[in-house]
From TrEMBL:
Protein name, per record: RidA family protein
Organism annotation: Iodidimonas gelatinilytica
Superkingdom of the source species: Bacteria
Pfam families named among the record's database cross-references: Ribonuc_L-PSP
Annotated family: Belongs to the RutC family.
Alphabetized CDD domains for the sequence: YjgF_YER057c_UK114_family
Length: 304
């Protein structure tokens, strides 16, 4: 068994946030996941360790066209007003990415639905069942305040498994441990995020949560944060830089970044920060964060 890299102590002084490390000998998901139904609408995915299984992370997608323009323009944001139609449209976007990788709905192991109204859960479940046709990934529903497009009612964020046979038609010379997935390559430059990223089974992954503007080594949890939203974004990204430097990796090793924000946030600040790298991304408007005074929080997955 491979000895895990000694990265577990670099957040010893972190007041908020958490770390999970996986190595190529301990894979959290399987190439052929099996379904376990639980009562009270809970779902779980039972998985075996499979060294040759690749993870595919998919960006959060709403009912807008997958390759909509950034910053958003009004004509791209004309959407149906009902959750049923928007769920079909969001799933269409997810499947566009899955199909490019030769995958099906049954390759999805985890699905999070961010929605503006929890009352829509019943109709969203109905549409999911129509598409998934008996397959039940681990599924969570979270009510949120807003999404980046004002007319969006929901956003779907997924993780899938890509068995090694799905890669047999690819040239070995083209394979790296991270592969950005673009379903329409000619439009790739218009995107500020990747629709999906495939991570090779032999990559180490670090999961980080709760990165805010608060000092990573601050022992006092109630130190006031600046009220300016932009300044908080800059402080939080400096914290990300410190973590990346400690890990000795660059921004191009960020696989996924989820932004939870309380003020208006269009993502352009993050685009500038990432300097051309486009990870998977979701941007979720919420009412409050655990850190007093915090207006932005990032969760990240890093390939180390």
């Amino acid at each position: 068994m491979t000895t895990p890299p000694d990265r577990r102590h670099f957040l010893a002084g972190l007041a908020l946030g958490s770390l999970t490390l996986t190595t190529n000998g301990v894979v959290a998901f399987a190439a052929t996941p099996s379904r376990t139904k639980k009562p009270n609408h809970a779902t779980a995915v039972q998985a075996k360790v499979e060294k040759e299984a690749n993870l595919v992370f998919l960006s959060g997608t709403a009912a807008l066209d997958l390759y909509h323009r950034h910053p958003h323009v009004p004509q791209d944001e004309v959407l149906p007003s009902d959750a049923e139609a928007q769920t079909h449209m969001a799933l269409r976007n997810l499947f566009e990415v899955l199909r490019t990788e030769g995958l099906e709905w049954s390759n999805i192991t985890s699905l999070i639905c961010y929605q503006q109204n929890m009352a829509d859960q019943k109709v969203i479940r109905k549409v999911l069942n129509q598409h998934f046709q008996g397959w039940s990934p681990a599924l969570s529903f979270v009510e949120i305040r807003k999404l980046s497009a004002p007319n969006s009612l929901l956003e779907l964020e997924a993780i899938a498994i890509a068995p090694s046979p799905a890669r047999k038609d690819r040239s070995t010379a083209d394979m790296t441990d991270l592969e950005i997935i673009h379903t329409r390559p000619k439009l790739a430059d218009s995107m500020i995020f990747a629709p999906g990223i495939r991570v090779d089974a032999h990559s180490d992954l670090i999961f980080l949560s709760g990165i805010t503007a608060a000092d990573l080594e601050e022992t006092e949890k109630n130190v006031p944060l600046p009220n300016d939203f932009g300044e908080q974004v800059r402080m939080a990204t400096r914290n990300i830089d410190r973590i990346l430097q400690t890990l000795n990796v660059g921004k191009d090793r960020i696989v996924r970044i989820v932004s939870f924000y309380t003020d208006d946030f269009d993502g352009r600040e993050m685009g500038r920060y990432l300097e051309g790298w486009r990870p998977c991304s979701s941007a979720i408007g919420i009412s409050a964060l655990p850190q007093p005074g915090a207006k932005i929080m990032f969760d990240l997955i890093i390939a180390a």
